[in-house]
Design brief:
The chain is built from two helices and 19 strands. With 376 residues, the chain is mainly beta. The radius of gyration is 25 Å and the shape is globular. The two termini are 42 Å apart.
Length: 376
């Protein structure tokens, strides 16, 4: 169990920014339990976590938990907090087997269910999932799971506007890994999600690791995402909230190299080209955000601008480490970054985008860091 409190003092402008931040959105017109106070100079909040269960020993594990955060709770100055105004109840149960059998060396199966609402009684989500992890006798492993979320409200979709009823969705995730003791290993991670209106996302990410010796290893991990969503926030114009269908494609390739020259010297490299393109269509105005029928929540809107985008970025860095005496280290760092953003262009063409990305000018940074250990 844990209990937390927060007390903030500041100018009226600072408190107004906190009240209207994405963690709260006090300005929402349908938030009957909230309201913006422009004269506020302090804010108080409370949060608590309580978990009861059996988390170790034996085959069966289970737990029941409750999390709460009042609307005024604020912890971002000392950590990271995405949402306030939250209540969550969750139950978890799992089974563990650690003794090798005829096929599996070990495995686990878990089940989770949850219910989330805010202090105004708005239901954020009711859902659950079943997932597993298994390791075979040859040290290969696999995992997977399936998740269901019931239709629920979103208080953040319109970014300060009224809450919107979202369709339910079903999602799954899966993957496998070969024996990581070998000099060449391979893995795969993927997920798929589809909501009740037929819009979906799919991601696949294979991974190859080569370790010819204990001094050198290299990992290459490409990732490809297709995301088709129909409730993407676009704009707010005179009290009208505009959403659209967004077809997104994302491709990235992450490469890591580690080479230990001597126990005191090492070389590390990281590089990732990243391209993303978003094509908007069917832009509409939200007119009845809680309507029972999905299409009744929107009306056509003649949006003048073209929000399509094409974003490319290439990040690399090279780090040389030398421990010139015990506890004292010198780091030589080179990093390069190149970014390109094209407005009103939403086509995804990897050959064009990668060629443009690798030939564009970038920013180069060189840095030296020296640590000295003084032994008194």
């Amino acid at each position: 169990a844990s209990i937390m409190g927060s007390h903030l003092r500041g100018s009226e402008e600072a408190m107004l920014e906190l009240q209207t931040s994405p963690a709260r959105y006090y300005q929402r017109p349908d938030a009957t339990h909230l309201g913006v106070d422009s004269s506020l100079t302090h804010m108080n909040g409370f949060a608590a976590n309580l978990w009861v269960g059996k988390f170790a020993g034996g085959h069966w594990r289970y737990g029941l938990g409750y999390i709460t955060r009042t609307p005024g709770f604020e912890a971002n100055d000392i950590g990271y907090m995405q949402d306030a105004d939250l209540n969550l109840v969750a139950f978890w149960a799992g089974y563990r087997e650690f003794e090798p059998g005829r096929i599996l060396r070990q495995y686990s199966i878990n089940c989770n269910v949850w219910d989330v609402w805010n202090y105004g009684g708005d239901m954020f989500g009711i859902g659950g999932n079943v997932n597993f992890w298994a390791q075979f006798l040859n040290y290969w492993s696999c995992y997977g799971g399936i998740n269901r979320n019931q239709p629920s409200q979103s208080n953040a979709l319109l970014r300060g506007g009224p809450s919107v009823l979202r369709p339910g969705n079903i999602s799954s995730w899966h993957g496998f890994n070969t024996d990581n003791r070998k000099s060449v290993t391979f893995g795969y991670d993927g997920n798929y999600s589809r909501n009740d209106e037929g819009f979906y996302s799919f991601r696949m990410s294979p991974r190859l690791t080569i370790r010819p010796s204990g001094r050198f290893d290299m990992t290459i991990r490409p990732s490809y995402l297709i995301d088709r969503k129909d409730m993407q926030y676009v704009d707010e114009i005179g009290g009208s909230y505009i959403l659209g269908h967004l077809d997104t494609r994302v491709l990235s390739i992450t490469t890591r190299l580690n080479y230990t020259i001597t126990p005191e010297m090492s070389l590390q490299f990281y590089g990732m080209p990243f391209i993303a393109a978003g094509d908007y269509s069917n832009l509409r105005e939200v007119v009845s955000p809680h309507a029972a029928e999905y299409e009744d929540r929107f009306a056509p809107y003649d949006y003048a601008d073209n929000p399509d985008f094409n974003f490319k970025q290439f990040r690399t860095n090279l780090v040389f480490r030398w421990e010139y005496s015990p506890g004292s280290t010198i780091f030589l760092v080179w990093s390069r970054g190149a970014t390109d953003f094209e407005e009103e262009y939403g086509q995804f063409k990897p050959d064009r985008d990668l060629k443009r990305l690798f030939t564009m000018a970038g920013d180069n940074t060189f840095a030296i860091k020296i640590n000295k250990w003084f032994n008194f």
